[in-house]
Write a structure and sequence with these properties.
SsrA-bd_prot_CS; alpha+beta; globular; RNA-binding; SsrA-binding protein; 7-stranded antiparallel β-sheet; about 35% helix
Length: about 160
């Protein structure tokens, strides 16, 4: 049998799917220091309000908070420092083309382990207006009601 790769989610940006329309999703590696990896594996990372930015042909993730590792002492880095994302040049150029368009941004969706390495799920997203968010909430409520009705009918 082949080797199975299990993805263990370490942190999620739940607000992203609420605030943005997700166009495309990319998987990227992330450049971390040893104490950051230990802290992330302990579930002490926060993707809320984080975004990715392209500088000098490289992509950096900004505002991602990684709490200092408790046993890390002098090896701990700044919790909000910019961390480089690892992507192929062609993917970076493609993402740069997307972000050059009006209204598009790069938003991290989740942080997870894949074959022992920390990966970031990076999305090309377009901001939602308030009425779009309301429409989504109404749609979700309608689906819930339909599921509830179907469940009640199947009981009899």
């Amino acid at each position: 049998m082949g080797k199975e790769s299990k993805n263990k989610t370490l942190a999620e940006n739940r607000k992203a799917r609420h605030d943005y329309f997700i166009e495309e999703v990319y998987e990227a590696g992330i450049e971390l220091v040893g104490t950051e990896v230990k802290s992330i594996r302990g579930g002490k990372a926060n993707l809320k309000d984080s975004y990715a930015d392209i500088k000098n042909g490289e992509i950096y993730i900004c505002n991602m908070h990684v709490s200092p590792y408790e046993q890390g002492n002098i090896f701990n880095k700044d919790p909000l420092r910019e961390r480089r994302l690892l992507l192929h040049k062609s993917e970076i150029y493609k993402l740069a083309g997307f972000t050059a368009q009006q209204g598009y941004t790069l938003v991290p969706l989740s942080l997870y382990l894949k074959n022992g390495r920390v990966k970031v799920s990076l999305a090309v997203a377009k901001g939602k207006k308030l009425y779009d968010k309301r429409d989504d909430m109404l749609e979700k409520a309608a689906k819930r009601d339909i599921e509830r009705q179907l469940k009640e009918r199947s009981r009899y």
